[in-house]
Design brief:
Length: 294
């Protein structure tokens, strides 16, 4: 196991800021994510982000031309490590998003983002994730007579770009559509051969300011974690790992589906800390109790 030198650690909480400061970190992306990530890395860690042209599409695309065969976390890890080896960096950051519907409310779209920082020399992976409802994610099947004006305003076109796909095989006809003229032209051409089309939001960061904002939020979260280190072995990246326990119903005391506390852990040793819920909840309203409100 890797142990930081005592002299590097000192006893202040900025030890690993010192540890990574003034180092170059590779960003594995070709979607201008540096706009969201560079500043937090500089301000919190004094790290300079280096962006190299790296085709991340080989690991799958949102529009499905190249299918994603791994989970988003695995894809992110693979992408980051491949890029680091290719460009000769030992520090690398990458992110990966997936979009869908909230399982509890199918009318609400969600953006689930992972962001990873990897120290290749020590084989440390520090990761954070964020599930945000701040997203314009959406798509609709249209024909020549469909009124798309509501959809366009709902997905914030043209500040947010669109994609156009075949309904049958999801083949991409156009993406990065961010002005009305282009949209009209591609629709006119596509409807010559297709009766129906799939009009959707372009989720690539540089075409989607809302997603860029979520990535910024996640980057802030990640740098805070990188700068927080284990009280036992002093490795950086100490933070949330899982949840445990069940909160009980305020009325009948039965256990509910609400977790009790957060488990924070180290990326290197087994040291853990237990923290209360972020929302401070100690008992659950009977409305959510399976006994009181079956
Ligand atoms: Zn109850
Ligand atoms: Zn530790």
């Amino acid at each position: 196991m890797f142990q930081l030198q005592e002299s590097i650690i000192s006893h202040n909480t900025d030890a690993c800021i010192m540890f990574y400061s003034h180092q170059k970190v590779l960003l594995a992306s070709k979607h201008k994510k540096e706009q969201a990530i560079a500043q937090p890395f500089w301000e919190k860690l004094s790290c300079t982000l280096c962006v190299h042209d790296f085709d991340t599409d080989q690991f799958g695309t949102f529009t499905g031309e190249i299918p994603r065969s791994h989970t988003p976390y695995e894809t992110c890890l693979l992408k980051a490590k491949t890029a680091a080896l290719h460009h000769g960096y030992h520090l690398v950051v990458a992110s990966e998003g997936s979009f869908g519907r909230d399982p509890w409310n199918p009318f609400v779209a969600t953006d689930h983002e992972w962001m990873l920082f990897i120290d290749m020399k020590r084989n440390w992976v520090i990761s954070e994730q964020l599930v945000s409802m701040k997203t314009n994610y959406g798509m609709m099947t249209i024909d020549q007579h469909t009124d798309i004006s509501d959809f366009l305003s709902q997905v914030q076109f043209p500040s947010h770009a669109l994609t156009l796909q075949n309904v049958s095989n999801h083949a991409v006809i156009a993406k990065g559509i961010h002005d009305e003229d282009t949209l009209e032209k591609v629709l006119a051409i596509a409807f010559k051969t297709q009766a129906q089309l799939l009009l959707g939001t372009d989720m690539r960061a540089m075409f989607n300011p809302t997603r860029m904002g979520v990535l910024r939020e996640l980057a802030e979260q990640l740098v805070v974690r990188i700068a927080r280190y284990c009280a036992c072995c002093h490795a950086p990246g100490f933070g949330f790992k899982s949840t445990q326990g069940r909160l009980s119903c305020a009325d009948c005391g039965a256990p509910t589906s609400f977790y009790k506390e957060e488990v924070w852990g180290c990326i290197q040793c087994d040291y853990q800390e237990y923290r209360g819920r972020k929302d401070g909840l100690l008992k659950v309203d009977p409305t959510y109790c399976h006994c009181c409100n079956p």
